[in-house]
Amino acid sequence: MIIFYLLCLLTILKNGSIVSAYLEMNLPDSKYVFDKELYESVLDQELCEEQIQFIQANRTDVLIEFMDAGIRTPRGVLTGNLMDLGNYYQCLNINEEIPNSVIEGKYCLIDLPLNQTWPSLPSLPELPDGWPEGWPESWPEDWPQLPWPDTNPRTLKLRAKLAQSLKQYYHQTFMNRMIDGAYENTRSSDAVSSLGFNFQLAVCIPKVCTTHSALNALFNTGDSLINFEERFCRLPDDKAWVAGDYVAISIFSVIGLLVLLSTSYDVYLTRYQAKETKTSSPANKLYLAFSIITNTRRLVTYNPVPGAIECLDGIRSFAMMWVIIGHTFSSLNASGLLANPLDSYEWMTSLKSIWIMAAPITVDTFFMISGLLLVYTAAGKVSSMKLVKNLHLFYLNRLLRMFPVLATTILLQVSIFGRVADGPFMETEMGNVHRCRAFWWSTLLYIQNYLNPEHMCIPHSWYLAIDVQLHILSPIVLVFVLSGKRKLAWGGLVVALLAILTASTTYNFINNFPASSFIFETFEDMQNYMFYYYVNTLTRASPFFVGLIIGYVMHLYRGKTVNLTVIPLTLLWCCAIVITALAVYSPYPLIQPDWDNQVADNLINSFLRPVWAAAIGWMIFACQHGFGGPINWVLNLSPWKVLGRLSYAMYIVHYPLMFVVNSTAIAPIFFTLQFSLFRFLSDFLLTVIVAVIITITIDAPFTIFIKHFMGGGPKKPRTPKVEENAEIEEKQSEP
């Protein structure tokens, strides 16, 4: 079991501090989405002053357009909203001819710190020692007389509880946005403390101006009076065309042509040839591989496959919906879209939200299912020697089965997703495009969780990397399981699980990670948790090895009657229910600001995930052997069969689609639970639609070609319908 400790050594400590087990890589500007040269080329300071002076003197209607589309005070500051986005499209649509030039709008977003430095007034006399008595009423006569308000703004204060809540919320929001890539180049704790107390304001200015020169000319504000930083600017048609765009368009065009030809051939055979002609030759099967008609029929038609675990599609479907609804809430909160983020933060840290905050545990369900099916589908069919001899095919089959959908999503992210939507919230989406253009290759090699975890193409693809890495390691255990000797198989499985638990527990107790991804004290804590724990193969491997054991147990009882009396059956179900309930409840105390129990954090990080996997494994075993009752009935409903087949594509595409939808927002969104649930329904429906398209036009066709060219060895004859369903069922080790 040395290999498991080698995993530990990749990420464990050196002299009491964490070793950088991942390679930090920089994003090249050449892959940037927006055309930076365009922004520089349009600047002309002399023309800027001329245009502003002209509209101030002669075209106040145009001046009003700029002001109406731009800067204003955010609403709902006391509920956490420090952002106003102006009117994006109105600004970019400004196009007015004036003598000698054309005035066009440019939309910019600036960060305006709330803690502005008191401006220097060099033309005034030096301040006296101490303010005059009765200030500001007794303002010195030789100073300019200013209309002071009745209330001294320096004495205004927020309630301490409100100020603390605002600080905690923006601190946590920064962490989540770092995870999603919104702030790729910001790595300091100072940025965390300052980010939450900046106004993010839209300004609309002539495109030939810089923000500082335009605001100084329009409002008499400049560096000497107001300190702000330009975050980004946008111009019409400012998205640069790069090689990735042409590659994506070319590949999708070829696939579209193949779909058209294959579907047309399918229609021809259906109308003019005998029904048996479609499957009478291997060539016809390849010709029909891209047919929308055939692939849709295969997707929605289900015939029972002997030995299939029927409840898995239901479990997979519920787990996928849990993932999507969790990402719906987290993407809304982390994106900065909300007009009342403090209300959202208070709800997310309340007991009412535990069903959302516990959503990350569901990924461990997929790890467990992956391990279960690996053993269940191989045991009794493949020997240890055959596995060793065909190890290259074992690895190649796993990689190729996952490749089509993942590569398609990367191509979409590289080009299409960045172009189908636009708006002031494009910053995060453009970061996703930027990272995929730079690091698409590490994702296709499934090494992104170690090579560039801070710049992942497809942020949630870390799951695929870990799953592939565990499959690469799995033959070390499978050789014992497939030996045909029960004692040897049980010895290999138990030793492997104990080894991984020992290594991961030791690692967790040495590093003292928090047990929640919601509350962090510093940026370094967040970075360590995400890169060294959350996307680490060592710390996420235990549910997979629990799945190997569950799969072997199910193999031993395949086709057999299991006799369990009432008492042990009741105890097992009670244990499973208690474990799942505790797993769902556990995030609540962990996300409270006053939580401070490192021992509990370490124990939760080490054992919650494998225990959850064991509880779900019992549920699968019980349903398979008739002990599931109404749970089994629900999990076996026919709609889950289709969702189960779509689950892998749904997992890959749902999160990028959420970023695309969020990027179309033109104003902050008011958070309510009802709105978030409706948003989930729209996210879910869009995900299903895109997953269906990808499955029937890309995943299903390439699966046929992969099986054809890799070969499947000798098989028992099966009817065409059973063969079609079996091909799909063989892929269900993915999410």
UniProtKB/TrEMBL annotation:
<feature type="transmembrane region" description="Helical">
    <location>
        <begin position="530"/>
        <end position="554"/>
    </location>
</feature>
<keyword id="KW-0732">Signal</keyword>
<dbReference type="InterPro" id="IPR006621">
    <property type="entry name" value="Nose-resist-to-fluoxetine_N"/>
</dbReference>
<keyword id="KW-1133">Transmembrane helix</keyword>
<feature type="domain" description="Nose resistant-to-fluoxetine protein N-terminal">
    <location>
        <begin position="45"/>
        <end position="235"/>
    </location>
</feature>
<feature type="transmembrane region" description="Helical">
    <location>
        <begin position="488"/>
        <end position="510"/>
    </location>
</feature>
<feature type="transmembrane region" description="Helical">
    <location>
        <begin position="684"/>
        <end position="706"/>
    </location>
</feature>
<feature type="transmembrane region" description="Helical">
    <location>
        <begin position="462"/>
        <end position="481"/>
    </location>
</feature>
<keyword id="KW-0812">Transmembrane</keyword>
<feature type="signal peptide">
    <location>
        <begin position="1"/>
        <end position="21"/>
    </location>
</feature>
<dbReference type="InterPro" id="IPR002656">
    <property type="entry name" value="Acyl_transf_3_dom"/>
</dbReference>
<feature type="transmembrane region" description="Helical">
    <location>
        <begin position="399"/>
        <end position="421"/>
    </location>
</feature>
<feature type="transmembrane region" description="Helical">
    <location>
        <begin position="240"/>
        <end position="261"/>
    </location>
</feature>
<dbReference type="GO" id="GO:0016747">
    <property type="term" value="F:acyltransferase activity, transferring groups other than amino-acyl groups"/>
</dbReference>
<feature type="transmembrane region" description="Helical">
    <location>
        <begin position="655"/>
        <end position="678"/>
    </location>
</feature>
<feature type="transmembrane region" description="Helical">
    <location>
        <begin position="354"/>
        <end position="378"/>
    </location>
</feature>
<feature type="transmembrane region" description="Helical">
    <location>
        <begin position="611"/>
        <end position="635"/>
    </location>
</feature>
<keyword id="KW-0472">Membrane</keyword>
<dbReference type="Pfam" id="PF20146">
    <property type="entry name" value="NRF"/>
</dbReference>
<feature type="transmembrane region" description="Helical">
    <location>
        <begin position="319"/>
        <end position="342"/>
    </location>
</feature>
<protein>
    <submittedName>
        <fullName>O-acyltransferase like protein-like</fullName>
    </submittedName>
</protein>
<feature type="compositionally biased region" description="Basic and acidic residues">
    <location>
        <begin position="720"/>
        <end position="735"/>
    </location>
</feature>
<feature type="region of interest" description="Disordered">
    <location>
        <begin position="714"/>
        <end position="735"/>
    </location>
</feature>
<feature type="transmembrane region" description="Helical">
    <location>
        <begin position="566"/>
        <end position="591"/>
    </location>
</feature>
<dbReference type="InterPro" id="IPR052728">
    <property type="entry name" value="O2_lipid_transport_reg"/>
</dbReference>
<dbReference type="Pfam" id="PF01757">
    <property type="entry name" value="Acyl_transf_3"/>
</dbReference>
